[in-house]
Each structure stands twice: as C-alpha cells, then as structure tokens.
Amino acid sequence: MTTPVAQEQENYLTNSYGLKSWLLTKDHKRIALLYMATITLFFFIGGAFATLIRVELLTPQGDLVSSDIYNRLFTMHGIMMIFFFLIPSIPATLGNFLIPMMIGARDLAFPRINLLSWYLLVVGGLFALFAMLAGGVDTGWTFYTPYSTTYSNSWVIATALGIFVAGFSSILTGLNFIVTIHRMRAPGLTWFRLPLFVWAHYATSVIQVLGTPVLAVTILLVFSERVFHIGIFDPALGGDPVLFQHLFWFYSHPAVYIMILPAMGVISELISTFSRKPIFGYHFVAGSSMAIAVFGFLVWGHHLFVSTQSVYAGLVFSFLSYAVAIPSAIKVFNWTATLYKGSISFETPMLYAFGFIGLFTIGGLTGLFVASLGIDVHVTDTYFVVAHFHYIMVGGAIMAFLGGLHFWWPKITGRMYPEGWAKLSAGIVFLGFNGTFFPQFILGYLGMPRRYHVYPAEFQVLHVMSTLGASVLAVGYVMPMVYLVWSWKYGPLAGPNPYQATGLEWKTASPPPLHNFDHLPVVTHEAYDYSALTEEVTSVG
Amino acid sequence: MTQHIDSVKTYAVIWISLLILTGVTTAVAFVDLGPFSVIVALSIAVVKMMLVALFFMHLRHSGKVTQLAMAATVLWLGIMVAFTFADVATRGWMGVPGR
Amino acid sequence: MWVFLITEVMFFGGMFLAYIVYRAAYPDIFALASSSLNVYIGAANTAVLLCSSFTMVLGVRAAQLGQKKALAINIVLTLLLGFVFLGVKAFEWREKFIEHHVPGPSFHFEGVAMQGPAQLFFSLYFAMTGLHALHMVIGAGIMTWLLINAIRGRYSADYMTPVDIGGLYWHFVDIIWIFLFPLFYLIDRHLK
Amino acid sequence: MKIPLFPEQASTFAPDVDHLYFYLVAVSVFFTILIFASIFFLAIKYRKRAGNDGVPKAVHTGIALEIVWSVIPFGLSMVMFGWGAEIFFRESRPPQNALSIYVVAKQWMWKLEHMEGQREINELHIPVGRPIRLTMTSEDVIHSFYVPAFRTKQDVVPGRYSTTWFTPTQTGKYHLFCAEYCGTKHSGMTGWVYVLSPEDYQDWLSGGKKTGTLAERGEKLFNDLACSNCHKPDNSGRCPTLVNVFGSNVKLVGGTTAKADEAYIRESILRPDAKVVFGYQPLMPTFQGQVTEEDVLELVEYVKSLTPKPLAPAPAADNKAQASNR
Asked: Does the A28-540 domain belong in CATH 1.20.210.10?
C-alpha cells in the first residue's frame, strides 16, 4: 500500500460534520451507510431471537420459554430478518453506494426519495420494534389467515403497519434504481457493458416494483380485517383463506429473488476480480438475472401444494419451478468456468464467494426436492424447508453480503480490513453455517415439523448438533462486526484500487469525493477488461 | 419530456366520447345479454382506459420503453389473475373434495 | 412517474383479484348486492370524474403553452370536481351505514340467506372505493400544492414537470374508477 | 447415541416417495461434488503465481457449452417433475373401496370419527393393509394432518373439506403431527396413529362405548333439526329427496350441474342458496351456527348412507400387506 498522504483529499465522509449533515444528507453514499447501521441493528436483533430459538431447542421439553414466547420468537426472527434485514441488505447498502459509481453518475436519479426510503424503513422498523416490546406478534412471518386475522391475540396491527411502511421503502428504492440505470449511465456505457452487479440490481428492482405493492395490499387487507372486521379472507363469511396465500406468495416468492439476485451480482464481481478474467458467458449471466426475475413471478403456487390448491394448479406451478432452476444453474456453471485459466488469488472476498457458490449449490439443489410434488407433500412445513431456505437466504445472501462488504470496504472507508482475521471469520461462518443447517435437512426428512416448541425426543441429537453449529456461526458473525469497525480507524490505507479491479467505482479515490468523480468518466471498454486496466496503470505509473 | 401539444378540440372529442361511453355502459347494463353483459361492460371500461391513457396521459407520444412497461404491467396483472384462476377454477376437477 | 404507476396498478391489482375470485364464486349474491347501489349516482359520479380529467388535461396543456392563468383556473376546476366526487361518495357511504350494509357485527342484507358472501361484496366495495377515495384525497393534496405554485407563477413552458406528473396521477386514479364503476354498480342490472 | 437418519416406511406411498428422494439425493450429490471439485481443482491449478501480474487471456463464451449445461439439468429436472407429479396424482385419488374416516381439527386437538361410531381424540386406530380415506375440516384456523411414516400431509382448512388417503403397510405406532402453524399450542397438537392387524382392529371396534354409527347419529340429527319435514324419501315434500343423491350429478337452477360429493352436501347445509336444485325454491334456512362441524359430518354420512354402495368394501384379509409385526 502507498504511504499515507499528508493531506487527505476531502471525501464524502469529511466534507461536512454533525448529526444533521447525516440525517438530512442526499448523498447516496451516506444514505448507504445509514442503511448499513440500521440493518446491522436489525440483523443483531433478529440474530438474538435466533439464538434464543436454538437454545430453546436444545431440549425436547420446551423448558426455557413458554410456547407463547417461542411463537413470538420465531415470528419476530422471520419478520426482522426478511423484511428489515435481507430485503434491504445488499440493494440498499452496497447497491445504493455502488450503482451510481459503477455507472459513472454523481448520485441516484432521486436523491431525496432515496433519503425518504431510509426514513420509511426506520419508521417501519420502529413499528415492528414497538410491537415487539409491547408483547410481540405470534402469527409467523407468513401471517396466514384466519389465524392472523381472527384468532391471534398479539400485536398484529402494529407489525402489519411496519411491514406496509417498509414495503414502500423497498418500492421507492427499486423505482430509484430503475430510473437511475435507465437515464444516468456514463457516455459509452451501453447495456451490455454494465457490470453484472448492476444487471442483478436492475432485475431486483423490477421485482420490487411489481411485487411489493401486492404484498402491501395484502397486508392492508389483513390490517383492515382486524381493525374494521371487513372479513375478505374469513371462511365464516364464505371467504377463502387460500386466496390470502396466493396473494401473499405472489410477492413473497419473488421476494426470495429480491434477496438472492443482488447476492449473485456481488459474486459475479468477486469471481471476476480475483480470477482477473471477465465472467464466462457474460450475456448468459446477465440474461439469467432477468429470466429469474420473470420466472420468479410464475412459481408462487409451489408454496401451496398441500394447501387444498387444485391438483392441476399444483402441476403447473411445479413444472414452472423447475424452469426457474435452470437460470440459477447457468449462473453457477458460468462462475465455475470463469476460474478456468484464470489467475486466482485467495483474498477474503474470494473465500466468501467460494462459500457462496458451495452453499447456494446445496440450497438450490434441495430446492429441486421441494419443487417435486411427491416429495414436497412429505417435507413441506418441516425442517427440510427451513434448512433449504436458510441455505439460500443465509448461506447465499449473507455470505455474498459479507463478501461484498469486505470487497468494497476499502472503497467505503478508505481502509483495509485485517486480512488474517477476515479469512478466519469467513472459514468460521462457512463451517458454522453448515453445522447449523445441514442437520436440519435430515430432521426435516425424518418428519420434524417447523415452528415446534416441543418435539419428540428422538430428534434431540440433531437439534443439539444444529445448536452447536449455530454458536460457531454466531462467533463468525460477530467477528467481522468488531474488526471492521476497528479497521475503519486503524486499518492500513487502501488507495483507489487495492484489488486491481475493473469497474468505474475503482477509478475514483477511496473514500470517494462527494460527487464521486472529479471528471465524469467515459467508457470505452467492455466490462471486466483487465488488459485495459494494466495499460492504464502502466501509463499512469 | 417530449413536448407534444394536442389541440383543445382533440381533448374535447375524447372527453365527450368518454361521457357517451359512460352512458352507454350504464344503459347496456339494464339489457339482458347473458354472459355478454360482463364482456361488454369490461370492454367499454378498457376502451375508456385506453382513451384516457393514450390521449390524456399522452402515452401515445411517450417513448417505446414507457409503452412497453405499461403493457408489461397489464400482462403481469393478467398473470396474477390467470395463475390464481388456474387454482380456483380447477378445484373440484378431480372429484375429490379439497383436491 | 410511470414506474410509480406500475406499482399502483399492482397495488389495486391485488384487490381486483380478490374481487374476481369472489364474484366468480358467488355470482348471484354479488348481483343482488350490487343492485342495492344507486346506479344513477354512480354514473353521474363517473361523469364528474371524467370532467375533472378533462379540466386536468387542459391544465397540463395550458402549462405546456405557458398560459399561467388558464393553468390555475383548470386546476381549481379539477379540484372542485374532485371534491364533488368525494362528497357524493361520502353521501353514498352514509346511506350504506343507515341500511346496515357496512361489514361488521351489525351487517344485515335483506333477501338473502347467505349473509356472508353479501358481506364480502360490501367488504370489497368499501375496501376498494375507500382506497380509491384515499387516492383522490392525496390527489386533491397534490392539486392544492400545484395550485399554490401555479399562482406563484412557478411553472412555465420550460418547467412544468410537476404539473405533468400530477396530471398523470390524477388520470390514473380516474382509470381505476372507470373499472370500479362497472364492477360494482353494473352487475346484471336487468334482473331488477 | 444413535443419530436417526431416515424415517420408517409404513405406507404404500413411503417407498415411492423414498425412491424419488434417493434419485434426487444422487443427482444432488453428483452436482455438489462436481461443483466443489471443479472449484478446488481450478482454483489450485490456476492460482496466482508469485511474481506473475500478467492478465490471463480471456476465454470466450462457448454457446454450445452454455446450451449443454442448460439442457442437461433441464432434462434431469423434468424427470423429477414427472416422477413427483405421478406420485402426487396417486396421492390425490383415493380408491373407491377406501375405509372412510372423518377428521375435525381445532385448536389444539385432532378429533377423529369412524363410520362405526367410534370417536377418538389425538389417536387414530386403523387396520393394516386397507386404504384409508380421510375427509377433513377445521373448526378454526388452518391445520395440517401429517404422518411422516406415511409420507403424507394435507392442510385442513376451515370452511371446506380436504381429502387425503394412504394404505398402511406395517402395524405399529406412528407420529401424527400438525404441520401448519396454528397458534400457541401448535407443537402440542400431536398424536399417534395406531396401525393394527385386522383382528386387533375388529377387537378395537367392538370394544369401547358407542353411541350408534355415524350415519345413525346423522339420522337422529336429521329428524331433530326437522330436516325430515321437507326432505322426504318419496320426494313429496317441498324439497328434493335425498335418496340416491350422493354421488349423482344434480341439476341446478341456472342450468349448471354439480356433483353431489361431501363438499356439496356441506355447502347445502351451511349455505343453502349457493346451489339450488333445479325446480325448487331457495326456501331452506341456513344451519350455519346451529350445527358444529362434527354434526355436519354426521349429516353428510347419513345422506351418503341413503345411496346404496355400488361396491362392497374389499375385505381386509385378502390384502397382501398383512400384519408384519415389529
């Protein structure tokens, strides 16, 4: 690394100070950091619930907490992690920070709306936190009617309101990204020169804009059913509880892709940078993001195979679920093929990327089990499903989030993280994760239903193994939190491009100046053109 | 924003046609057309929507991307309804309750 | 703005889906319940809303041409017509209250044994028209804001994006009503 | 300590589901190893060598390769789809000669009713080797009837009937779980399924207190609720006769027809004017709120009993899957 420059250039962190300059900022980079602080808080709240759940499940009798509390724990764990952590995680932090820089723009298209989105997330989160402190909510994150509308005796209304508000945060972010990517690309940056990270976020934004309103209206109906007793899903009035499930999953299945697509975008960047090669099959990887976004909307009924949905609808949805598996497989194969004849180095982000591919492969393959009608009848609503979606959403999305966070950390803060610690924590997360969730596949096939507070004694061994894994995983998650904060102050200075990566974000200082670029860049090369990079470096240096 | 200014006359013609269509759809509702009642009512509504969107909202003059996006949205809504009906309408085909 | 409208389409779309499912399940009850709504008031209100769209588009046109006074007048007219619509709607809802057609414990609909599905009809009626009215109120807020700025002379032929966006929103809300009207008021009218 | 890895197989579906499961496990293991091994191999073979800062040459996309690795997984997954769908189709069609049992779920217990009149709570006694058909409904929220050893699960939804069936192949005692989250004591909504040998089952049937068969109780209700005043066997009342109705196609007002199955009869009791029989007036009052789901089931069973069975139920003895005691 270069020796510290005597006077640091003024950057987005130092150009103004004070709480007000943060809370009223319109700078996408500062807003990204606000998001990061917020979702980290939500992640640790959600994580605390997870810890309690795992500790409770050490014994089959349910002796740590009562069943009422247990139900609130897994509900709040799900709501916090999904609506307030995973959905905003990569798009609102890394996406927010990087998309304008990657496309050579000074900011997002609507900086004020961007700030508004953050406030909406905070307000939504406060509603949810309020519900939690007031006594919690026990409907499960899925809010199935008629339990949520008529029978549950908990804070459904406040939570529903929180999710409703947070939904609008997500919609506005998506809207902002779409317009930004359409309108504000630097000269020469054609669609097929975009980094795959941007492609993935474009696909994600489309889902957010098309899907989230349906969730909003569904939650609104649940809300009005509790408040005004209008009873749209009430079977006592001839209403259809399965209709709720259709509406809910119309959003909530695509929501999985809101979480995983940006993660795939991150991985594409990492694999390319540390192999020093363009992504193999760029067009296929970009196209598969869009294909996933489109097909992702056509498969929601696979959550309803045993719900009294008609057999014929089940067949259609099962078939389409297999169709959506193909673009995901294409991505995995292309990432692997990118390594071929590369020049591969093993920095921390690359380790996370390898971890991601491994866990996502397992998560994706077990998705084939639950998409198969015959097997899903047996494993749906068991720990098999729990393990499957944790492999995708935790193994996939959070591995990529941590990988991306390490990768762009020098860009965000101007400092390097401690490499040794970071590699160690990447290893711990990978091992802890598998230790936690692999036993749950076996538990699920054995028939252990999910959301069970007490369970038959023969399942205990596997639950204990899972809890042991979870404690390792917890260490793996706390470590980066500690050393990253430490490195912000004490880490070695990074310089503009510590990894010799392509991409416009590496062409400006670290941390970047307020408006990202001193001179707006002009793009003349395809994405991931490393030979062009060496030319420049030699000419400069 | 493409500046394309229509004449007041165009707007007035559209406005009058919208009012006439409202009258027609109300009147037709009192006539027994069997299953066609719904089709007629919805067709008139679609025509009215197109008039408002194309002329009042200037979709006629908007870029291809906007037009495509709106068409895609309508299609998406169609998917949501069609796939839900793939369930609702085929319930009971097996002759087994709940299948 | 168009992207935002996509969101709105899907938002109302969820409710339309619920409506279609239940109407398909209980066609007769829905027809009976529909006939208790006053079709003439509904039609008149539709006309009011269409007129407001007309004045709105004239307002946008005035902004495009830089005619500041015409812009202000048309926004005022749009706003007034919007309030007329809301007033009529409030009157209709009040009637439903008196007739015990509001979903809830005191719901009662004469002439059908199946109170449940009849209540579903009115649940959807209130949810959808209520949401539409909420959009109208927001629209009125936007109109007021546009009016203030128009009177201050903020808009010109070169800068009229807010007027354009406000117009798009207003027309969109109009389109929603264009569908709500036949769906709620015009089911099998010939039966009565 | 023994780590359980695999659930017992106790129904005819269990081996079928497990075979498909093994196929999927094989495919998954193959691809997992393929991906893991390629990453290890490539990452080590092409690791960055010290002192080499050169940029490797770009490898251009091979369209053929992309197509190959799209089509092969697609083919494999279509096998999964077809195979799984075939099993699901069989799981969805109970055979005609199945032994019918009714299930009413409520927070937080299972109530099971046998045709012969036995009632059970959180316990189900069934004979080995005979197809069992469950007709289920819920009094409150959504539950789900799940017996892992049978590999069968079906949601139990308020306001409608759902159906599942299985043929147990082994005597023994198996877990019954509620698999759809249903509130506070969800994890307490469990029970046992006892699969008995035919002789033991006969003993069990003849023991215990009985209050008449399900149909008999239904008949009593039918008279108590004054249904019999209108629905007369000889069709002389103001309402259609119910003799021979079950299983027939009923012509309705408006020209459509409806198949008179359990769901139809239930709806006719609770929402009489939803489907009015052709030639009759919608006179019947609703019985919603006056009868419990269990009462409705008894009435349904009575109406069913008014239609003579086309087939005698297959005797249990001739079934191959005889009691293999454990």
From this structure: yes
